[in-house]
């Protein structure tokens, strides 16, 4: 079926279309196929050879898992996460009406060490999985994970989770 047969058989398109005739002429021109001259093709884009050294640029002989973690979450990244989390919490507190009993009223800024502990708990929860978040801090012996209580309270963890932020919403495009 060539383009003329298609246009004649598709009368429903003409009924619903409210485009101008110039648009239809453009579509007809786009449907005309032409041969590509294989001898006069445009040159391909330049290829730039990779000259770097692939892999980690640090020695990892006998390293512990925490050292691997610190490669990706160095002080700059963790500090940035802490500052954006604090900024988001301050913005939230300023822009929202909070009742006197709101847990947000008790917000204290996070620092680098607290963000590291928080991220460690998140990784731990990926390994030791429980159906409910609160079960990690449960008082019941079968459900509890006593080690987490020593690191951070459930309330502090949940408030950091609420405000955890990685970018400034005011400057995002």
Brief characterization of the structure:
With 173 residues, this protein is mostly helical. Helix content is 49%, strand content 0%.
Q: Which outline best applies?
A: extended
User: What distance separates the N and C termini?
Assistant: 47 Å
Query: Which class do the helix and strand fractions yield?
Result: mainly alpha
* Sequence of secondary-structure elements: HHHHHHHH
- Oligomer state equals single chain
**Strand content of the residues, in percent?**
under 5%
The helicity comes to 40-55%
**C-alpha Rg (nearest Å):** 30 Å
What is the tally of helical segments? 8
Nearest-integer average pLDDT: 83
Q: Would you report the number of β strands? A: 0
- Low-confidence stretches at least 5 residues in length (pLDDT < 50)? 1-17
Q: How is the biggest beta sheet arranged?
A: none
Protein architecture, described:
This protein has 173 residues and is an all-alpha fold. The chain has a domain at 65-163. The chain is 49% helix and 0% strand. InterPro entries: PGBD (IPR029526). This is PiggyBac transposable element-derived protein 4.
């Amino acid at each position: 079926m060539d383009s003329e047969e298609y246009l004649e058989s598709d009368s429903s398109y003409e009924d619903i279309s409210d485009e101008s005739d110039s648009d239809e002429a453009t579509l007809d021109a786009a449907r005309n196929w032409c041969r590509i001259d294989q001898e006069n093709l445009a040159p391909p884009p330049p290829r730039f050879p990779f000259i770097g050294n692939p892999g980690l640029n640090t020695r990892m002989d006998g390293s512990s898992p925490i050292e691997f973690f610190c490669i990706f979450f160095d002080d700059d990244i963790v500090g940035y996460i802490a500052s954006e989390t604090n900024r988001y919490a301050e913005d939230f507190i300023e822009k929202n009406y909070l009742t006197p009993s709101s847990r947000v009223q008790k917000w204290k800024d996070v620092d680098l060490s607290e963000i590291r502990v928080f991220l460690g708990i998140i990784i731990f929860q990926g390994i030791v999985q429980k159906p409910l978040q609160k079960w990690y801090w449960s008082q019941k012996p079968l459900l509890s994970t006593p080690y987490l209580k020593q690191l951070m309270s459930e309330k502090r963890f949940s408030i950091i989770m609420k405000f955890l932020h990685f970018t400034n919403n005011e400057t995002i495009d």
